[in-house]
Design brief:
The chain is of the alpha+beta class. It is about 25% helix and about 30% strand. The strands form 2 sheets. The protein has a two-stranded antiparallel sheet with strand order 1-2. A hairpin with a 6-residue loop joins strand 1 (about 20-30) and strand 2. The longest helix has 9 residues, at about 45-55. The mean pLDDT is about 90.
Length: about 70
């Protein structure tokens, strides 16, 4: 038996607010099944916060699950 726990956009935002001001945080869902696609996006108020998050690449965990953080490429 495996128990699943889903991270919400609010949980994601709450975690990343510990590094600095978060403008928006969203989990990406499959529109047909409404299940998480396993990734999301966080928009920070300033570049300094982004760099701090990226500098601590190996340190990001939510509920025991590691979160890989990468900058979005426009």
């Amino acid at each position: 038996y495996q128990r699943y726990f889903f991270v919400t956009s609010d949980m994601l935002k709450s975690y990343f607010q510990t590094f600095g001001k978060v403008i928006e945080a969203n989990i990406v869902y499959n529109h047909e099944t409404m299940k998480s696609r396993g990734f999301g996006f966080v928009i920070f108020a300033d570049e300094k916060t982004v760099q701090e998050v990226l500098k601590r690449y190996d340190d990001h965990y939510l509920f025991g699950k590691w979160i890989e953080c990468k900058p979005a490429l426009l």
